[in-house]
Amino acid sequence: xxxxxxxxxxxxxxxxxxxxxxxxxxxxxxxxxxxxxxxxxxxxxxxxxxxxxxxxxxxxxxxxxxxxxxxxxxxxxxxxxxxxxxxxxxxxxxxxxxxxxxxxxxxxxxx
Amino acid sequence: xxxxxxxxxxxxxxxxxxxxxxxxxxxxxxxxxxxxxxxxxxxxxxxxxxxxxxxxxxxxxxxxxxxxxxxxxxxxxxxxxxxxxxxxxxxxxxxxxxxxxxxxxxxxxxxxxxxxxxxxxxxxxxxxxxxxxxxxxxxxxxxxxxxxxxxxxxxxxxxxxxxxxxxxxxxxxxxxxxxxxxxxxxxxxxxxxxxxxxxxxxxxxxxxxxxxxxxxxxxxxxxxxxxxxxxxxxxxxxxxxxxxxxxxxxxxxxxxxxxxxxxxxxxxxxxxxxxxxxxxxxxxxxxxxxxxxxxxxxxxxxxxxxxxxxxxxxxxxxxxxxxxxxxxxxxxxxxxxxxxxxxxxxxxxxxxxxxxxxxxxxxxxxxxxxxxxxxxxxxxxxxxxxxxxxxxxxxxxxxxxxxxxxxxxxxxxxxxxxxxxxxxxxxxxxxxxxxxxxxxxxxxxxxxxxxxx
Lengths: 111, 453
What we know:
The structure holds two protein chains of two kinds. Chain A is 55% helix and 0% strand. Chain A is built from four helices and no strands. In chain A, helix 2 packs antiparallel against helix 3 (55-70) and helix 3 (55-70) runs antiparallel to helix 4 (78-98). The longest helix of chain A is centred in the C-terminal third of the chain and has 21 residues, at 78-98. By secondary structure, chain B is α+β, with helices and mostly antiparallel strands. Among the domains of chain B are: 119-220, no CATH class; 222-342 and 372-416, no CATH class. Chain B is 53% helix and 14% strand. In chain B, strands 1, 2, 3, 4, 5, 6, 7, 8, 9 and 10 form a ten-stranded antiparallel β-sheet that branches. In chain B, strand 3 (184-192) and strand 4 form a beta hairpin. Chain B starts with a helix and ends in a 10-residue tail after the last helix. The chains are: A mainly alpha, B alpha+beta. At the A-B interface, helix 3 of A face helix 7, strand 2 and strand 3 of B. Chain A: It is found in: Membrane. Chain A: Keywords: Membrane, Transmembrane, Transmembrane helix. Chain A: One of its GO terms (molecular function) is protein folding chaperone. Chain A: It comes from Mesorhabditis spiculigera. Chain A: This is Protein Asterix.
């Protein structure tokens, strides 16, 4: 059945949707680079927390992992996010195993 | 009888001497015995607590001294004197050895000391709040997108034969929203006269990210929805136009390659009958006047704050390259109409307004398709495009020359390599002859040959 003359639809002219290739997502990355920045920052903080035994760095790494997770794209590799979380959690755990003392709060100086 | 009494007395005395102090009886065997066994006065109990040791060195020493005096007279008690000396020495050394010792602060166990972990508790509270906000914000964003789609799906299905294709199934599917991120959603429509495809992209505020929410308090953002129509090649005459809210359009003019290259005429909106807060960037006045008819102008004035920008172009290729970079080849261009509108959540009244805006968008697209430039205008735009192409060719001329030279050298090298690798001597000789002929020809001055017919 032919479509009515005023009907703009053309079923024979359909073009399929092409999903964004995850390997070629450079253009999107430049649009919003937040997840990549937070990933790198999280790794740096984790390394500092593990090697320099700075507890606050380990906690900051965990926060960066969470921010990266919240801003991640659907087609991004989930392995990267999971490994980022694992690294930051291990930094926190290792810092407290080596030295279970709490972080000295900045307001303690005023007490 | 007296002998018996004497024997008994001697025996009694002998037994008594056995039970006396061992030092006297064992003197003969002292050298064979260990020092520890011969001592009966109690040495300081090992290991003594170090604090007690500090207080205690003098009493044991004092105790030992009188005992020592008892045995001084006995010359054979070598072992005991030595032992006393050795016993005095540890006592004299012990206080000195204790001085460098420091007590380290052993922190109390976790469970007995929760109250001191204040910073940790604060960080954990922040993390929990962040994740709660993530779940809530994601839900709100998804709700916005899905509600808009369900409200306007019918209107889209009247215009396109496929609405909401996800590209995954063999046959085109309907009704799918592609979730790119937790704040960005897209709908693909296709199958319309004059339009290859429509991509509707909804970019909401990053409600799922607490950091962005806090930044949003300082620089508020709005949810927006972008309609990108890709038009058929032969549908559109060559011209470029951008009209919309002044700040947004000015930013687009700076960032987009086609607008910055072609749309050089800048006008305030009020000159064209548009709202005063709007601006126009156009390649041709004729195009701006032709598209913006009175009916459209009325609608644009009505929805002045809701419509962000309208961009129609036959040379759209995305963002401009950063300074210092040049294209190695001319970028691929597409014929597009991109309209950005504010996305809101609300009741029936808002949905009616959105329907009106959607109808206006389709009207603009059909107008752009049908609009034909005058002959002079068309010549002008074609000249602009040729000029851009020539400028590109000039800047890349040197690069192309170098590339051609590199290709020629590569071919020569391959030919020579083939000659060397050739095992058959006849073939090798033939190839060498051909190579020599080729070299002679290339060394000759290039002359144009005229063909006489």
